[in-house]
Amino acid sequence: MSQNEPAPSSRAYVHDRCEQPTVVSDTAFSTVASPLAGVEQTYCNACKDMFAVKEYRWADSGETLPDYYQRHAGGATAIDRFIASRHSIIAAFVVSVVVGIATAALFYFFLKEGLMAAVFLGIGAGFLSLIAMGTILISFLTPMVHRRVCKVSDPRHLV
Ligand SMILES: [Zn+2]
Hints:
Blueprint: E1 10-15, E2 21-25, H1 26-33, E3 41-44, E4 49-52, E5 56-58, H2 65-72, H3 78-84, H4 86-110, H5 115-150
Antiparallel strand pairs: 1-2, 1-5, 3-4
Helix pairs in contact: 4-5
The protein binds zinc ion.
């Protein structure tokens, strides 16, 4: 499917146990459509609970989610999967906390700022770091990995 067309806004999958469809849209759709996101469980609207992805198939194609992930993620490396999963965001958060603490320590111990000013600067540096890394991950690295592995930058284009 051409990447120039807008991505579909939603897709439905069917849960094997109850045979009922659930429509996913927005972020939930992007996540569940990504063969690299490492999704293990997803929500069934009828059962009102999370179940393993192997219990679901796409309503339109009939393909199970694990088969779809396998088919589109053939050339993915561990690093590709890390970048496209939420683990990279968690890692960016941890790094930002460290950056914030290091910045506060630098201002307090070496530049002899007051404690409150140092804490404030540390929080600011941590936030900036998280925004910068989150933007790079979400807007550049993840689409790049999807384009290389799945041939589309937005996995919602995949069928
Ligand atoms: Zn169900």
